[in-house]
């Protein structure tokens, strides 16, 4: 049995959840069960008795923890050795056991939290065994300074706190150990967090590591308190320091999977997927979620049932096939999994009735989606509630004779090869700007584009009809351009980005010193500030060279720029950027970027991101994209986000964390469209990062690639400067320009803990080599669907 744990900390907000002495409502346990959790640790004290009755009723397991915590007493573990405290230790443990031992939901006892190791705890263990020997004991303390090892003689379960995945594997494969391994705390959910958690669950589910049996995520609820701002009368969730208290840990209790009003964080969809009781697999040797489909359209899958007492047959199963052109499925149908079945074969032919040619097979992407839902009402969920889901990429194979002459690359052209009438592109240059005009457009009114010659920033980009798309502002400082299209290497720091030895030193200087000796590092934000890459620093772009080159018959115009990104405070060069803007007379714009970090950045643990930022017209708030969704996801937290076409808006694409930070990203995006209420707008699609000796794609053709996208109502600088949601003025759709990030790469979130850097190397961005990427923007008319327009451009380029 693998345990899917959460630490339970709660506060009474409008009487919705628990204060230890208030009777809990019957719905208390639903968030646990409905998100595939099966156990709770009552950290760090026993709960009200009604909680245990609810867990008995709903079938939740409990690790019941004694009300003993002494980690603030130095030296660590001193009270556990002090004979004067023996009775206090023993009585707290025995009173807990005597009160709660008749609850079947309790399967573990805990001697407390972070008390070190000493005789008083051994006396407590013996006293507990005198009352109950039917349940094992979990206790993490002792064996090592501070966070300890979780594998002393005091515990029956190896239960370390916040180990890395590597340390987890080591604990579960030691030859001198036979106790099960259950993490007492892991995946610290502080703000935008819970990266890397899929790596833990890869090990938990590994049949070759049977002693690895799950862990308790820290924790369930953000412990913020609702407060009203006196000046605006707006409500927000407050934390340490917001009540006149001078000694506090600020937002260190804002670390749950749910907000105080029980709204789920985006990370919860990832965790629910990883912990689900049923999943599927293919015969692929490396576990890839890819199914090859031949002409019979059959998909064969093996069933992985992780229920202890049930079979998958008690769920109602449905499959659907979606494509890269449609948000709605091409087809869907129910299917049944008999009790003893371990292999299923699904007939998907219904989804491909209209897919008759090899070209259609190779140009489109298809996904098989599987859902398992509750068949009938239960005590914890209504009929139709989703329990398990999975997705597989479908690869449609062609007969060799059908594939002759069929181009499978899906090549896109940023410019049409056809005629665009008599219109030609011109460049009009003055001391400050280069204006790109299309014959018939009024230069003084709205040219196709304006490029700032001093910074290289694309100040504006307008559709051929004159509708503005990209905008800028310099009203606060004429020399500082906000908006436009310009390289972006920063992000609004998350709580995990701020985690490092300098954070720990604020409240535990000895620990900080020991970590320093152990070669632990400072936070990512510390290094970003040091080199001017945090969102509060000022960087400037200086254009060293700019050249306009007109293409054949004036149908294209290339503007090539060589720019430097400078940290203004110390005038240090950070990046050299080679940018090519390729304009086409249809209004299409292709952007090629080559980024070379300067040597000074080679010591950085990771760059925040590599990409561009744009400020768009406020009317373009309707969003559709092809990528992972529907909620935000990041490179190290996207296992629970499915690929497909998703619809959202600028005001809804992100998430309002109690402490504002980087948010709203979508990974594996191929295109994103932004349109106004009438359907007029722009589409951005990505290219693959193949390159020649100069760092650019050899041909004018653009091959589909992947990018990260985020759209929101606030700039990175505004998010970084805000401490509470109240610090950001409400901006509904259509009331403010829109901020867009198109990223070649973005650093992961991390999440092993929030007080040390913990993004894994594969999700960091090392500034030790060049980066090359490309993307295109093209106009969208009201009656045009972005997915089909992108496909149409692919077909057009083959002619």
Features:
799 residues, alpha+beta, TIM Barrel, Immunoglobulin-like, Beta-galactosidase, Chain A, domain 5, nine-stranded antiparallel sheet, 15 helices, 15% helix
Provide an overview of this structure:
With about 800 residues, the chain is α+β, with helices and mostly antiparallel strands. The chain folds into three domains: about 5-220, TIM Barrel (Alpha-Beta Barrel); about 280-405, Immunoglobulin-like, CATH 2.60.40.10; about 425-795, Beta-galactosidase, Chain A, domain 5 (Distorted Sandwich). Helix content is about 15%, strand content about 30%. It has 15 helices and 40 strands. The strands form nine sheets. The protein has a nine-stranded antiparallel beta sheet, with helices on one face. A hairpin with a 5-residue loop joins strand 35 (about 670-675) and strand 36. Helix 4 (about 85-100) runs parallel beside helix 5. The longest helix has 15 residues, at about 85-100. The radius of gyration is 29 Å and the shape is globular. Residues about 10-20, about 400-410 and about 695-700 have low confidence and may be disordered.
